[in-house]
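Render Phosphoserine phosphatase in 3D.
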Amino acid sequence: MLVAVLIANPARPSITGAVLAEARAVLRTEHPPRILHGEVAAEILVPGDPADAGALTERLRTALSGEPIDLAVLPADAHRRKRLFLADMDSTMIEQECIDELAGTLGLKDHVAAITERAMRGEIAFEPALRERVALLKDIPVTAVDGLIADQLSLTPGGPTLVRTMRAHGARTCLVSGGFTLFTGPIAGMIGFEEHRANVLGVADGRLTGTVEDPIVGKAEKRATLIALRDALGLDPAETLAVGDGANDLDMLAEAGLGVAFRAKPAVAAAARVRIEHGDLTALLYLQGYAAAEFVG
């Protein structure tokens, strides 16, 4: 059995009765919809094999292409609610790129942001691009980070609810970032993650040295973190969930039982099994079959 999940942005409810009727017709299912949250999210059981999920998702997307709705067809099995959750930080759990904001303190934000964008799109290799950008940050006071977190960074809507709800239901959570521990530590605490992994910037006399310690947390390290945590917990691969937006997240998303591209770069959205373009981060709860009444705020 499969389940089709329809998700809208909470600020723009769009899952109307007419939309659900059309979805059922396209899916050729007699099962009634289960409303997860008003006109924001619903799911419909669909007879079928997991091998059919991709084709059914595309069929739904074509039929509802004019609607601001995210769509996914997933296995309706015992592993639907995940027990391990890994998330990217920059442009995923927060709405900014920390390295760009740091560069802004030196008047270099546009220059660094252009390199960041190319790296996240997969147009240039992540590791050398990171070293190039970090070198430009030399002599920034470490104390600048506190000000940026307080004044410049914003949490992506739905993030704290996503993490706290999963933890309340027994999942392990980890923020894993190609950014820096100076940011992931405080931000993981703000959102509710149990642990965090990121790059370590060189610091001397209270200022950044323009260097980053090895190993760099890039594509391979993110995937390795998922595998290590999964194995330590003795989980089936299907019990894992990962979310990200950039090219350095692709291996982690592919390794997860459910890999979600969240408002991602085009190449990432195209490669991921599930993509969220309209909903907020609570979409990842609806994908797991949680109703809004079960959310932990």
